[in-house]
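Feature request disguised as a bug report, sorry. It would help if multi-protein outputs had a clear separator. Right now it looks like this:
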Amino acid sequence: MQEILTQEASPKRAMEALEWAVQRAEKAEAEQPEAGAEPRASSRVISGRPADFKAAAATHLPDVRKLLDRVMMSDDAEAGLDALLESGALAAMLPEVEAMVGFGDGEWRHKDVWKHTKQVVRQAVPRLEVRWAALLHDIGKTRTRSISPTGEVHFFGHAEVGARMFDKIDRRLPLFTKEDALKSSIRFLILHHLRASQYDASWTDSAVRRFAKEMGGCLKDVLDLSRADITTKRPEKKRKGLKQISELAERVLQVQAEDAVVPPLPSGIGDAIMHAFGLPPSRRIGELKRALEEAVEAGEVASHQEADVYIAFLREHAGRFAI
């Protein structure tokens, strides 16, 4: 954005191209002409040069963001994304997304990442943070692909790499600069988009509790993005994946309901700590209780036990808890 814009750059042309992509996404363009007739202007590809889009981003960033949001939130976001690609907008403004086009396509026996991404966006619930995260969740794959000696394809660490790439995108194209909460949510979803799919029935209540706490206010978004991320064409595999996420959501609600009725630590645990370690009533007791709650969430000690169990745990780790 800091580069000197040439006189030839036309932000107006770029904005027209973005508006055309919105029309494609919202199915607002005119009917296709009959065979042999001259194509209407709305059916022609409206494109711009990199300098045009960079000029538009430098001078009309809020309007650029609004148009991109309309594409992302549309009923036919796939058509809008294809239009952004055809217009040159992706290559100019979001090259990390454009790099996914054709990446895969059977060459290394893994699905085309661009086709997968468009489907994830289409399947995602129409919430801005989820749709944007759907677009960007796999950008790290282009930097992390590895092929094992047996021909298996891996993308180790692509979520973490993708989150760092999002940071670089934000510095170059600050689309969310005035919406820190939205920006943080999108980055969080990119970083954690695989977490829910790692669930299986062997998870303990402590593991479920820990997952819910770590996801925090983004829990619903993480679950919804995970559902959208299932793009397999095999009905049974898709059914199994959706069931897995639904079971996790139900486990979270179950654990939260149980904890609301019966807290993980027993009543009177504070008095038991004071008596066992000769401590007076103080802030320190609250700190030790919170440390025990964290140990429960980490699965180090079971929840809903008698006070003696937690006193023994504190004694066993006296050095750690400084008692």
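(second protein starts here, but nothing in the output says so)
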Amino acid sequence: MDIEDLQTFVAVADAGGVSAAARRLGIAKSIVSRRLLRIEAEIGVQLLARTTRGAALTEAGATFRDHAARASAEIDTAREAILPTGELRGRLRVAMPLTFGPTHFAPVLAEMARQHPQLNVHTAYSDRFVDLIAEGFDCAIRGAYLPDSNLIAKRVGPIRGKLVASPDYIKAYGAPESLDELVTHQALMQGTETWQFLDGDKIVSVQPQGRFKADSATALAAAAAAGLGIAWLPDCITYGHVASGALVPIMTRYPVPPGAAYVVRPPGQHPTRKVRVLTEMLIEYFARNPDVWGLDR
């Protein structure tokens, strides 16, 4: 049985249809359909029930999907083991945050592709929560991960942040000195989030209030620079604004608790070498750019 047929079947099962799997694999729908027909003809059992909305696994298909996924993973591991040292090939599918992925992490992926010309790198940039297993990603880069998730996370670097406002806003409304004062100011937020600060050894939560909201940290930084209010943002977003004087750190006696960036991947015994190499490159990137991430403090 052809390994590409197995991998295609797993992609269709996880994506819920031929069209979605074809997009994920980067091949024509007709190729996906032919591979599915070959597998079903080979084992003599219907694995997928075609519907107007896509495809659903039969009982036999659900059982076969797990075995096919394990077999595909074993073959990938075997291929990596016999490749020349350092050489990567195949496809790496990565989910990146839209907020700072294109500006900060995209160069790392580009360098990885340059160093490994036989590797196909497919990146999806979005701030939404991506289901790695259902959507067929090898890994994702996240500013946080769910501790109760079944995903495996590897920390690649810290992410620090701060409260910032423009000089014009401070001149017009003053800079808050306490957490109680902060809630009387215009906050620039992504939604209805809670802001956290360190008060000595304690973490204190504040419910900010404001009229300007955006689902992009970059947009919030621009709004803060325009004098619309106070923003709670990571240093990698505000670094340039602070360096130019467009934004000023405020309430520095109440620092923001440090966060971290993680490479997360689906559960399995060992990460693929592609994911390991990307993880190592990201760790090195954080070490080379401490000022951007606020690590020089």
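Even a blank line would do. Unrelated, but nice: The chain has a mean pLDDT of 86.
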